[in-house]
Amino acid sequence: MAAPRLPPARLSGVMVPAPIQDLEALRALTALFKEQRNRETAPRSIFQRVLGILKKSSHDIELACRDPSQAEHVASSLQLITECFRCLRNACIECSVNQDSIRNLDTIGVAVDLILLFRELQTEQESLLTAFRCGLQFLGNVASRNEESQSVVWAHAFPELFFTCLNHHDKKIVAYSSMIMFTTLNLERMNELQENLNIAISVIEAHQKQPESEWPFLVITDHFLKSPELVKAMYAKLTNQERVTFLDLMIAKIVGDDPLTKDDIPVFLSHAELVAATFVDDCRSVLKLTSEHQTEDEEVLAIIRLLDVLCEMTANAELLTYLQGFPGLLERVIDLLRLVHVAGKDTTNLFAATGCVKAESDISGVADGFKSHLIRLIGNLCYKNKENQDKVNELDGIPLILDNCSIDDSNPFLTQWVVYTVRNLTEDNSQNQDLIAKMEEQGLADPSALKKMGFEVEKQGEKLILKSTSEAPQP
Q1: What is d(CA 378, CA 267) in angstroms, rounded to the nearest whole number?
Q2: Which pTM was predicted?
Q3: Contact (Cβ atoms closer than 8 angstroms) between residue 334 and residue 392
Q4: How remote is the C-alpha of 365 from its chain's centroid?
Q5: For residue 72, how many other CB atoms are within 10 A of its CB?
Q6: Concatenated DSSP letters of 418-460
Q7: How would residue 443 be classed by pLDDT, with cut points 50, 70 and 90?
Q8: How confident is the model at residue 294 (pLDDT cuts 50, 70, 90)?
Q9: Do residues 51 and 110 lie in contact, with contact meaning Cβ atoms separated by under 8 Å?
Q10: Beta bridge partner(s), residue 460
Q11: What number is the average pLDDT over the span 271-284?
């Protein structure tokens, strides 16, 4: 593609006036750059001329910012800016040569400065939003798969542009800025986020406002969760509502279609330490739900979500081994189960059991499933772990667990998790088997309930034997 010049130059069969200085010429270039062959043959001089238009129009915007009375008269400048951004955006698609040429002209810096100027423009014109969006699309394309451009975009955009855009009222601007962050972030730049936690928290807030948008989600799951230091620093600053959102995303990463990789495990071991330590320290706050004046306290919701994360983490073999030995975790879970179970006998609080199953499994209470997950976590922590099996026995946890084998609509699958946990407690553990067998003989364990769980007690001489009627479970 030849450079536009006087007289008019021929661009892949299309006549384009030169020098490029009006809207129609820019639109023609934008259309031409939709074709790969035109992108690959574009001379650097074209981008110099587009940059010239961008700079002149930027000057017009700057004047309007200084004199608000002129803000309503910038429509033509905004049109030119929009088309410049569209032209540059298209030129960068899968074309590293153009990305490099545009970057080396310092177009990225001009674009970022212009976008930041838009904040000061006192106008509600739709054309301003369009120019804003196209500018962000250009920054995303110029950085795509180009490390040098990513570095330059990050240097100009962080932190001011990200903070401005992530907190913008326009959903597309939030999404496009999240795309740029996703494209430009790496582990080194994550350190800069630790010094500007408000930017990282803004991504969480963006996901809360737009859960359907993939870019904030991907920034968190594919970048933030790879930095234990960032996660720890963020978690301390998040509100409880934001913590719930963040922990939900951690669960999504753990249970996603793509399993955790070998490289993910060391990072998630650090996350497991944070989650377990926070749960051990703060979990008793969930007992606020036993008060007469029950409210959906956000701190309680965060504790409940920590338990959910621990359940999913202990379903991973590598994370399970670490958490099985985490100081105080098993003891605290059993202690909490006991307190919740006692509280549940009082029908005036959210832990009270409901003895029937509601239609269509209607689950709405904040504490729904909490007891089931406590028992599930105990079962996971005891999976093929003799030390933890014995610890549950020592803490009188077995009678407590068996006492929960009843229908409770507030805890779906409660009986199934009791079955699972009893199996893990008794596997290759004769002491725990003997305890349950003696409980059955003394009338402390319901034989029909044991049978439903897949166990039966058989008397061999003077000895009671607890026998399993089916195969052992998996965590």
Answers
A1: 24
A2: 0.86
A3: yes
A4: 24
A5: 11
A6: HHHHHHHHHTT-HHHHHHHHHHHHTTSS-HHHHHHTTEEEEEE
A7: low
A8: low
A9: yes
A10: 463
A11: 97
